[in-house]
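Dear Dr. H.,

I hope your travels went smoothly. While you were away I took the liberty of generating a structure for the chain from your last submission, since the lab meeting agenda had it listed for discussion. I wanted you to have the full record in hand beforehand rather than looking at slides cold. The sequence, exactly as received, is reproduced here:
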Amino acid sequence: MDYFLTEEQQMIRDTAAQIAKEKIEPLALEYDEKGIFPWDIVKVLGDADLFRVFIPEEYDGLGGGAFEMSIVVEELSKACGGIALAYAASGLGIIPIILFGSEEQKKTWLPRLASGEILAAFALTEPNAGSDASAIITSAKPDGDDYVMNGTKQWITNGGEAEIYTVIAQTDPSRGARGSSAILVQKGTPGFEFGKKEDKMGIRASATRELIFQDCRVPKTNRLGKEGMGFMVAMKTFDQSRPGVAAQALGIAQGALDKAVAYARQREQFGRPVSSFQGLQFMMADMAMQLEAARALTYQVARNIDAGVKNVAGISAMAKVLASDAAMRITTDAVQIFGGYGYMKDYPMEKMMRDAKITQIYEGTNQIQREIIAMHLIKESMRKEG
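The corresponding predicted structure, in token form, is as follows:
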């Protein structure tokens, strides 16, 4: 399908696609097996100005938005969802700075993030606060001009590798969800340490660690927005970042479909290519339909965000669910098309299937996303009734 990309957007996509093919794909299986964080690829992406595409021009960016970031994430994920996540997760950490940062905060961090010199991360999840994001207990107790932070964040993507972290912590526990605030914490701050690197099923080239705060003193000037806005910062960030998760799912799925079709054309059984069998043709047709439908929705949601549409939570959740569910089905079918070879680690299919699974889980499980979608439907129905 033709999505009418501008000349600049086409150049961005072509650049990302070239890096994916030439730099990422040859390393994907090794980095997955060994759990290597792709700093070498991060440098390539930085040198190609791809971190700049979704950052405002006044902070050394190229002035694009969610759509441009989604294009890059999708292309990189065709080669490896785990390696692509170093880029995408930094985007997740950058979005709250763009949305809620002060002018000083933006000038301090965005140019360095735009260059790819450093990465960002976002920290909300805790051992007992996953889908129920309002249940966080990590505290940031006001003390003069500082906050003193204590607690643990869990499963933080880019943990230990990123330089700057947007951390959601309770500044007034008596107010519940309205008592949390978003605070920037720099790597190396005394009292801020990292747990072990998690050993994951998929996206193994991505670093996932605990963040541990023990009497970590952070200036109040590091707060994003007003005190008590932490939950809002998190939800507004996710509204804009979920198309990025959808784009990651699209890329993994497209990569799997491309490889499955190529393999089916080459693999012969009963004297002819298996692509000539109707059973496999129907599978490939279904895979392609699911993928194109998810891409159309994801691109439209990203464009709505960039156009300034305010209430995007429902459609953003739809894009994330549709694309990630499709990616799981498509990669599973791709393994089936490859047959026994698809189950072997010498081939990329089993890795793509493992990588696809996380897209149904992080940044809000698909079950929670369906609740968000349903709540928006109910609210809209009530609004129409007056």
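Two observations you may find useful: The CA atoms of residues 360 and 366 lie 6 Å apart. Residues 7-119 form a domain with the Butyryl-Coa Dehydrogenase, subunit A; domain 1 fold (CATH 1.10.540.10).

With kind regards,
E. W.
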